[in-house]
Amino acid sequence: MIVLYKVDEMYADELTALFEEEKIKVQYFSSLNSLLDQVMNPMIIVTPAIYKKELEHIPLPIIPIMITSWDIQEYVYHSKKTSYKVIGTQDEIDWLKRSDSAFSFVLLKDTPSIAIDDSTAYIAPIWLKKELVHIPIQNLNFVTPGKAVLINIVQIAASMLTFTEEVIRDRYQVDAILDSDHDGIVTVDKDGIIKLVNQHAKRILGLDNHSIGQNITSYIPDSDMLRVLKTGVVEMGDLATVHGRKLVINRYPIKIGEKVIGAVSNFKEITDIQKAELKLRRRLHENGLETVYSLEDIVGRSSIIHATQKLALKYAATDSTVLITGESGTGKELFAQGIHASSRRAYGPFVGINCSALSENLLESELFGYVEGTFTGALKGGKQGLFELAHGGTLFLDEIGEIPQRIQTLLLRVIQEKTVRRVGGDKIIPVDVRIIAATNRELELEIKEQRFRADLYYRLNVLALDIPPLRERLDDIPDIVEMFMTEFNKERDSMILEVEEGVYRKLKEYQWPGNIRELRNVVERMVVLEEGSVLKADNPFIPFMEEREVARQAGLQENEQHLIVRALEKFEHNRVLAARSLGIDRTTLWRKMKKYNL
C-alpha cells in the first residue's frame, strides 16, 4: 500500500492517477495520529520533504517529494523578474545545489529575518505555503513538482513495494509474538505450515519443539485456522476447551493487499472478567446490536470514494456527532456502521432506526422508552428506549429529516443534556451515546421551509459526510459488480466466472437513480438468470437510458453548472453563501464544483 501523507490536493490527484495506472492502492492521511493507527499495515509513505522529520520514528520506508531545478526553471522561464531566491529546508536546498547552483537559497528557518528586496522574486515548494503564510514576503511564489518528479516517485515506490511488504510482514509476525507474551500465539503460512509459535501456545496446545515447519493439522486435525486461510475473515471470541482448559480464541488473516498469505491465532484461558465480557458481546450479537460492516468493506477504486473513506476514518477517531448526507441507496448506513466499527466505541452497541418508518407516537416510545401503564398494550415493567440500549455505543438515526418537530425538540434536549426520560416517567436516566444521523434531504432547505429545527441541525451537523452518488463514481462499478456477483454466486449451482467488458461499458452509461441499491438488484437478476458461466453484454436486465433521457440529463447538468457558476460569481466565490443561496450544504457544493472542474 502507498500512503500519501500531507500531500497537497494540487498534485495529489495526479499522483494518485499515476499509482492507479500501476494498479497500486493509495490512501491519504493528513494527521500523524491517523497514520499511526494504520502503521501495522505494510506501506510506503510518500510525503513532502518537510514532513520527513516528524515521521522519522516510524519504521517504514519514506519517499520524500522535492521540487527540482527544472521545476524552478519552468517558473523562471514564464516570469519577468531578473533576480530569484529559493526558499526550502536544508535537505531541499542541498538537493537543488547538487543539480543547479545558479540560484540563491534561503533556509526556511531563516525566512523571518531576511531583508526583503522588492526586486527579488522568492520561490518555494507548495508545501511550505502554511509555513510562510505569516511572513510578509513580497513576490512570493509557490512551485508544484512537475510530472517527471511524480513519475519518478511512482517508479521508485513500485520497485520497493513487493520487497517492503515481505520484510514488514516478517517483522510484524515476530513483533506480534514478542508483544503478546501473555497469550498463546501460533502463526501459519498460506498452506497451514506453522511458522512461529510461542511458549504459551506450546504449553496449552501440547506442541513440541519440532512443531515449526509442520502442518497445523498434524497437531489439530480440524484446525479452524484453515477456514481463516480460505475466507480471509477475522474470527473473534471463539470459545473452545483444549486439554481441559477453557480458551477464548481470536484468529486473524495475514494479508498483502487483498491476498491472504497466512494467519495468526492468539488465545488465552478465560478469567472471570473475560467471561463477563464475552457474555455481554454474545448478548449484543443476539440482539442485533453489533455492526455487520466496516470501512474496509466499502468497495471502490475512485478517488472520491477513497477521500470519503479517509474522512470517515478521521471522524471515527472522535466522539462528535456525524451527519451523513447522500441520495437514497448510496450506502449511508454502511458508512455509519464503518465509523462505529473503527471508533473507540466499537465494543459497544450499534443501534439503528429508520425514523421515517414509524408514526410519531411509536417513534417517541422507541427512541426514549416508556414506563409501565403508559398506554394500552405497554409491556409490564416498561421498555428501554434506543438511547438506553445504545449506552456506551452509537445510535444511528436514518432518515433524520422525516422526524416530526415535536420529536425534534425532544431529541435536541437529549443531545444537549445527555439524559433521557421515558415516556410517562419522571426518572432522569444519563446516557453516553454517540449519534450518527443520515438523510437524503437538503436539511438547510428544510430549515428555510420551517420543517426542521435549525438548532437541531447544527447539533447534528458537527461533522458532515456526503456520500457521492454512483453516477459520480462510475469507475467503481466493476469492483461493486464483482462483490455482488460473488455474493449471488453462492446461491447458484453454477458460478459466473467471467464478465464481458461490454457489461461494464453499458452499466457505466446508465445514470443509476437508485445508486448502489439499484445496481445490486440489477446484478442479482443478471446473475440468477444467466444460464452460462459468462455474464454477457446482451443480458436483457442491463438497464439503459433512452436517447431522450440522455439529452435531458445532459441539459440538467448544464443548467446545474450554470447556476453554480452564477452563485459563485455573485458571492465572490464565498462557498458558504453560494451553497446557502442554492439550498445545498457546503460539502455538496464542493463535490459538484469538483465534478464540473470549477
TrEMBL record:
Keyword vocabulary terms for this entry: ATP-binding, DNA-binding, Nucleotide-binding, Transcription, Transcription regulation
Highest taxon of the lineage: Bacteria
All residue ranges annotated as the Sigma-54 factor interaction domain in the record: 298-528
PANTHER family: C4-DICARBOXYLATE TRANSPORT TRANSCRIPTIONAL REGULATORY PROTEIN DCTD (PTHR32071:SF57), TRANSCRIPTIONAL REGULATORY PROTEIN (PTHR32071)
Database matches in InterPro entries: AAA+_ATPase, AAA_lid_NorR, Homeodomain-like_sf, HTH_Fis, P-loop_NTPase, PAS, PAS-like_dom_sf, PAS_fold
Residue ranges constituting the PAS domain according to the UniProt record: 170-212
Name assigned to this protein: Sigma 54-interacting transcriptional regulator
Annotated NCBIfam families: sensory_box
Coiled coil: none
